[in-house]
Inverse folding.
């Protein structure tokens, strides 16, 4: 039998051990609760705390802030294991793979001390809000305004599609501190959300997939936030900060997409061995074998590039262009593979109780979030000149 989940070239002994811990934990504590999370449209807070106790929320953050002190390999392991377990509810990738690194990289010592241990333990759930109702692709065009008043910013505007937005305690907000400027007028401000006057959560949005993950609208109406909550020593650094962090976000999507592709193939191989049609197993038809051979080849080739990108990111050498290619390629291929695998399930593939049906609905968004794949092509194309 072909090994679909080989040991990764970037996987250290520490990462191998961490993987088995994460896998056992997810199987025992998360998989049994996933149906409930999908029903209620969010992951229970006590699960975040459990994951924090296990060191699964911020494994690559320095130990002095309560993190695991590991490399990005540990973040990649969690992302893969969530995909293998079919879990799209618990978005540690946003919390530990995106939010915490912004604070770690751009925060002052006081900011780090204040927020990182809480993110690491799960006392705080983290979110990042860039997208606005008027548009997400054109980040420079955001309208949420932070006006300086003495020691505070007064923030007005709104955000949408915010992952963890319904439950988050800490939200990194992309705002305009100078509306006369494009990129240079943007800053990132950390909001400790619960109980703040002027901070309102809208609906926990109804999505076609990823039902267990909360995705919310946020509204700011004269929201007063201490100026000390800005990330970066001066205003106007937000756009550059986002450009520096987006490669890791996109790589994370690619890593999850790659593993989800492997899971789709695994469940389909099992299904076509069991299913009988015309008095034969479905696997005996050449079409089935050829389709799965194509899917497996796609997954294996994708794995090589994604693994290469992970290794380069661990060495601090991943470029924006390569991260964009990885996101573009792996999410496009994921959707193709899941579609083929669903077809091989026949009508059962359309039944929500089958993993492949849930995958079909869950994966579609991956070509859109983290920057739509058309934006990925723009970034790649810009490298020609
Ligand atoms: C489930 C989910 C979770 C999300 N989580 C977060 C989050 O945590 N934080 C956050 O800030 N955002 C989040 N987003 C938002 C996501 O990043 C945006 O939806 C995405 O960036 C696209 O922005 P938009 O939806 O406004 O589409 P638009 O910007 O309106 O674009 C629509 C479409 O137009 C096309 N397009 C746009 N620009 C170009 C171009 N230059 N060239 C060619 N075609 C183009 C693309 O096909 C694109 O899909 C999430 C979205 C979803 C659905």
């Amino acid at each position: 039998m072909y090994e679909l989940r080989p040991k990764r070239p970037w996987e250290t002994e520490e990462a191998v051990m961490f993987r088995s811990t994460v896998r056992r934990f997810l199987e025992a504590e998360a998989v049994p609760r996933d149906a409930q999370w999908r029903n209620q449209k969010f992951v229970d807070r006590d699960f975040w705390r459990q994951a924090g106790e296990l060191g699964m929320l911020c494994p690559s953050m320095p130990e002095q802030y309560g993190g695991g002190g590991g490399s990005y390999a540990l973040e990649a392991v969690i992302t893969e294991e969530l995909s293998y377990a079919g879990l799209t509810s618990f978005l540690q990738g946003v919390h530990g793979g995106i939010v915490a690194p912004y604070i770690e990289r751009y925060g002052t010592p006081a900011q780090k001390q204040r927020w990182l241990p809480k993110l690491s333990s799960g006392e705080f759930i983290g979110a990042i809000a860039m997208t606005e109702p008027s548009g997400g692709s054109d980040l420079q065009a955001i309208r949420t305004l932070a006006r300086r008043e003495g020691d505070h910013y007064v923030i007005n505007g709104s955000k949408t599609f915010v992952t963890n937005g319904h439950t988050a305690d800490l939200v990194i907000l992309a705002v305009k501190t100078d509306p006369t400027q494009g990129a240079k007028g943007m800053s990132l401000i950390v909001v400790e959300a619960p109980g703040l006057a002027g901070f309102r959560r809208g609906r926990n949005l109804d999505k076609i997939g990823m039902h267990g993950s909360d995705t919310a609208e946020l509204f700011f109406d004269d929201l007063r936030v201490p100026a000390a909550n800005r990330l970066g020593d001066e205003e106007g650094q937000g756009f550059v900060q986002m450009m520096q962090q987006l490669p890791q976000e996109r790589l994370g999507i690619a890593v999850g997409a790659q593993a989800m592709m492997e899971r789709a193939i695994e469940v389909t191989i099992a299904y076509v061995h069991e299913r009988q049609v015309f008095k034969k197993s479905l696997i005996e038809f050449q079409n089935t074998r050829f389709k799965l051979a194509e899917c497996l080849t796609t997954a294996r080739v994708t794995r090589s590039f994604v693994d290469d990108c992970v290794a380069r990111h661990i060495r601090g050498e991943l470029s924006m262009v390569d991260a964009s290619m990885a996101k573009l390629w792996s999410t496009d291929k994921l959707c193709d593979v899941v579609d083929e695998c669903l077809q091989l399930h026949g009508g059962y593939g359309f039944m929500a109780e089958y993993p492949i049906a849930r995958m079909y609905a869950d994966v579609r968004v991956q070509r859109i979030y983290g920057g739509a794949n058309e934006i990925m092509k723009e970034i790649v194309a810009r490298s020609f000149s």
About this structure: Strands lie at 126-129, 145-149, 152-163, 170-176, 186-192, 199-204, 215-226, 230-231, 276-277, 280-281.
